Amino acid sequence: MTDVGLRPRDRGGLGSLFEPRGVVVIGASTDPDKLGGAMAASLAGLGLPVALVNSRGGGGMFTSVREAADGSPVPLDLAVLCVPAAACAAVLEECADARVGAALICAGGFAEAGGDGVEHERRLREAASSTGIRLLGPNTSGFFVPASGLRASFVPGVAHLTAGSVAVVAASGGLNHALAFALQRQDVGVSLGVGIGAGIDVTAVDVLEHLAEDDRTTAIALHIETVSDGPALLAAVAKVSATKPVVALVVGEHDIGEFARSHTGALATSWRSTRSLLRQAGAVVVDDEDALVTAAATLAAVRLEPQSDPGAALVTGQAGPGLLVVDALHGGDVRVPDLSDKTRARLGELLPPMTYQANPVDTGRPGPAHADVIGAVAADAAIAVIGVYGLTEPVIDLPRVVASADLNGKAVVVGLDGPAEEVSDGRRTARSLGVPLVVGPRALSTALVALVEDARLASARRDATIAGAHGAAGIVADGVGWTEAQAKDLLDDLGIPTPSRAVCTTSEEGQAALARIDGPVAVKISDASVAHKSDRGGVHLAVTTAHAMTTAVDALRSIGAVEFLVEAMAPAGIDLVVGARRDPVFGPVVLVGVGGVATEVYADVAIASVPTSLPRLTALPGQLAAHALLDGFRGGPTVDREALARVLEALGDLLVANPHLDEIEINPLRAHARGLVALDAVIVSSHQPDEMADEQRKTHE
Amino acid sequence: MTDVGLRPRDRGGLGSLFEPRGVVVIGASTDPDKLGGAMAASLAGLGLPVALVNSRGGGGMFTSVREAADGSPVPLDLAVLCVPAAACAAVLEECADARVGAALICAGGFAEAGGDGVEHERRLREAASSTGIRLLGPNTSGFFVPASGLRASFVPGVAHLTAGSVAVVAASGGLNHALAFALQRQDVGVSLGVGIGAGIDVTAVDVLEHLAEDDRTTAIALHIETVSDGPALLAAVAKVSATKPVVALVVGEHDIGEFARSHTGALATSWRSTRSLLRQAGAVVVDDEDALVTAAATLAAVRLEPQSDPGAALVTGQAGPGLLVVDALHGGDVRVPDLSDKTRARLGELLPPMTYQANPVDTGRPGPAHADVIGAVAADAAIAVIGVYGLTEPVIDLPRVVASADLNGKAVVVGLDGPAEEVSDGRRTARSLGVPLVVGPRALSTALVALVEDARLASARRDATIAGAHGAAGIVADGVGWTEAQAKDLLDDLGIPTPSRAVCTTSEEGQAALARIDGPVAVKISDASVAHKSDRGGVHLAVTTAHAMTTAVDALRSIGAVEFLVEAMAPAGIDLVVGARRDPVFGPVVLVGVGGVATEVYADVAIASVPTSLPRLTALPGQLAAHALLDGFRGGPTVDREALARVLEALGDLLVANPHLDEIEINPLRAHARGLVALDAVIVSSHQPDEMADEQRKTHE
């Protein structure tokens, strides 16, 4: 056939890949043990034309893509390449001639294998780029769209997958399948499952953008190994999560370097940064693949209204499992509020004595009033979502009871436990009634935590008007070695409080500064080339007398000091570390931690991509494990979170406005009873600002 | 019938409860919705005589226990009481007259309900004690022994439970059932499942002791809510875990106070202490009920030889899931060692190029050589246990492949993923071949971590010869308010290094001490009644001159100091906190943490019950999240772990030898380049030692 162009809407998009009108398998085989045979078999169930190509022909196969295209009643939008790595680039070019719009390459043997593979990959990238064909792979087991029967995967079990509304977007083909099967084992169907593999063209970003427009998908399970384009990923997650929930699992908490690199062919990005920034972008971040499956399946069925702190309730038939759920809800930072007096009074009417009529509600073995009990809890204004846990019962069918309850618009998730047979029955009933159901206490707490987290992220998104670069945009930071005094002058310009101070060169200037500044002063060497001032004997603290000043100045001169800094000592308080730096993957970020070694040893740092909104920055320190330290811990100061947020904002703005700056860190930022003060600051820039910026600096000075 | 005594071996033991010759249900009913009806129905399948008693008779039921016993061909060893709380004590006495040896009470309405319940419980306790009947409950859903068909539970699903070798010992009846059902859903049978409930007679300790002798049981899943007798629990866990693995889940990480108390009628003990001490006693401690089930099921099938640091290998057909497993193994502190050159060479022969032939071994889709690949890894001396992960395959049946591999005596666990149907088939095959199998990457890593942890605990147990109280046994600590100097003198007696110091009352003594002690000194008020010396202006640091000494002494006198302490200042280093105290549940414990607020904010404290062995104490700091700080972090000192262990041992011995001491804490214990030194110590005793001890102290002084 001729004259059939790409469908316009496909150009650049993934329609040809996921919704082709026809498919061609190149390197097809009649041997099911070969890739080309497995693919042909897997695609046989597709209700669309599937053309098989093998250069040796035979078995009714075409000998070229062109021949197949000419013989096809529909355009062959998708090509599945089952040929060796060395042949892929050339075949892709043939495909372009035959008006193919998308291709899948499962094979390995490209850059990740080294040797000739590097050249094979270079040529493949070139072919993809020059032809405009959207390429999934190489090094993936493929993808599947169960609703259309499109199973472009060589894993035989995909025939069992059913259609549903959870999309799986996995870095790895193997994990794509593992996740889809885990969903299938819970009777949850899949809208699309994709393993990105090497991702030399189609990446998770492209698939997320495709899913934003995919009506079949109501939630996305995202698995991340490495990130190549951080800002694009964050933008895609932010876009999709505005309309459908994204649940993300990031691998690589621990050092799994060599194997990870062999698999992905790329350096793993920082696990902590990736998780923090995905969360900031709107993804519910989970810790393991079980939680990924549970959270995505639940969020595909139900989503809370955006709200900053939804309250959860538990109605349980058994106290012991209920304790596990409540313990895990607290661990997931979910509020389990008290029920109102009205609710308690109603529960008192509905339930026998000796049951626990607070939150959780421990009903004992469910009775005929169970739906009313759930309804009473749902009517409580403090409650946004309800978990209903119970063992399977022949007389009380929990999914049916929940479906019959008046939920007052509130969300509910059933947690069931029981023998396999009865749990399967419960699952089927729940599915048919549209009631979200999970199995076991842990899954129930995971589901509730995910619902609450998603609602909180949505609320933060609503509040997140990015104000753009502020005053700092006009401030240009010089690129040469900074003395402490210069760095602090810059902080002053940014509106960040610093101690009273004077740069001195003579003993007389030192005495004058001592007289002028209230209270004891610190006297420090001022030399950008001295990094560890204390270690070098360059810091004298608590100087209060003229005699002590003379002694300090003499001592500094004896270690070669020309200039020295006389500075008011700060009141006691809590030392924080704040900074802004350029993440190699995600770009400008700000971070906050508690000072001292704890930040590093416990890896307790909260991080946000900038620019962002002030409310987000205000909430940031709350992510620290040690956040209790900021709230008057043991008689210490209560840190002004908004003032702290403004410091972070200023640092972020500075970095965004000054591309030549690599990093600025205030360590420590002392939080004391009356506010914040920056006690030391380090600025790193790997290159000079350009001439114009330099001029601006001079003007500014 | 008459003259049939208790079987001698039952006296005190739980034979009558779990292996009765006959059963009597009191308060039996023909209505299956009533407890007495549900119990009668559940026990109907038992191949033993079950007598039904109802005071109103009818339906072939006896009207009294005595009548039932007289009419029974076998002794009715077990009575199941389905009567109201108020009637239980009297019925228990009737049971004793009828030679019943054990009883189960499911009902609530005792002390946990308050009001009359308190009196009902008091009378029940009295009856249990006076009759010697072993009583399970009240407030439990019962127990089951599937192998004998004994299902003394009102939960209908128990009919589905199959016989196996995992015993479940749960604080809660509901969780006992939830765990047993979770095992059933994984095709794993149960030897015994018990919910302890109120535990007024039979506790987890009794059941553990019973299980130590139970040949049907090869692993125990233990669920703990509260602990009444800590030492007895630890002793029972230590005893059982020597011969069969114990996996423990402790609920209550977060504050779930009121509901927990309503359920258990007791104050929850410290979650952290309970976990640490159970682990020390030999239990594999897990974080959630999914891990409890996976670990217990795996350890029921396979157990490693005791070894201090077993190496794990992973053979995976898919890289993505393999990365998740390896990441989690690192997170579980499991070593994934390199394979030997010999092993790698052998893998090179067996596997196609482009596979990853290190550890993990990423085979790509398994081929015919898969059993040999597993065998090659098993032959590697560095490997003690192998995880084999893969998606289900029609041609490669993973459990069968593993069963056919030459494992060289090494342990193996299969992790399977695939559609429900194929995974079920794999489970059945694995079960029939005796191959441990779990589903999914997370379960595989959980299983491997549990095997390694169990082997390490067994190794620690082997090395753990408790040396008993040492020198400290002879040291008696006085009970009145301690000055810092007195506390440090005691540390000297214990062989714990302290700074050079002198207690002074005059300025001249101060000057003499300054002259005698090397380097700068601290001058501090010495007054047991001043708790926060620094806050009161009672500490002057870095005194080096006679003038400064005079100033310091004058300043101390101005705040009322009579006695003051002149002390050498310690070299810089890392500040630790060590101590010994009496846990209200578990008795004497020692603890170690990193100093400063981190210990508290991050709850990062390692704890051990004492007396214990020096190797255990040497290993203790390794449990700290911040343990990297002790190993030359950022140029800091490397802490001598054995010296630290000796300090802990001395503190523990002191507490054990001095019953009137409540607590001794050294804070900080400074670790510097040349060793440890105690910079401050606090001793708390709530009462005086007795007269004799006081005399001993005087002699010692």
Automatic annotation (TrEMBL), chains A, B:
The keyword Cell wall biogenesis/degradation does not apply. InterPro entries: ATP-grasp (IPR011761), ATP_grasp_subdomain_1 (IPR013815), CoA-bd (IPR003781), NAD(P)-bd_dom_sf (IPR036291), Succ_CoA_lig_flav_dom (IPR032875), Succinyl-CoA_synth-like (IPR016102). This is CoA-binding protein. Keywords: ATP-binding, Nucleotide-binding. The keyword ATP-binding applies. Residues 488-697 form the ATP-grasp domain. One of its GO terms (molecular function) is ATP binding. It comes from Nocardioides eburneiflavus. It holds the Pfam family CoA_binding_2.
